[in-house]
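## retry 2 of 3
previous attempt timed out at serialization; input unchanged, resubmitting
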Amino acid sequence: MCHVSIPFFSNSEDGKALQRCIDRASEQSSVDAYSLIVAMTHFWEAAAAEVASGHAVNIPGFGRFAPIPIPERHRMMSRDMTPRCKPSFSASRGFKQEVAFGAPPNDSETVRQRQHQKNHAAAGRNDSARVFTAMQAMRDQLAAQVGRSRN
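## retry succeeded, writing output
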């Protein structure tokens, strides 16, 4: 198995958790970490495209990603009455129970989750690149690490 560093946040707590997930999945599937990450980034691009096109993506045992309309009262506050949607995630019952009975309470994670939500609040139409750009950048940096051509 080849070890790769996760681009963008390898030294953060989030990066370490993601690295453990990738290492475990790589070991259990007998797929090298690079190939696993490339497949994973393509999967999330496809899931984001499905949700962005108005379809829900249900991952059995994990949860459901779906576009939900932004309520009119929220649109009135921003003075932009254009009907829009935002992504929503609903965890499956099994996933919720696994977390409820397995994860110890951790106030620092609550603070970090709120900070993440604040940093990734609804952006304007031209504010930032979409998920596809981030996933491609991750693949490019990983390819450079392991000396492979771009996928």
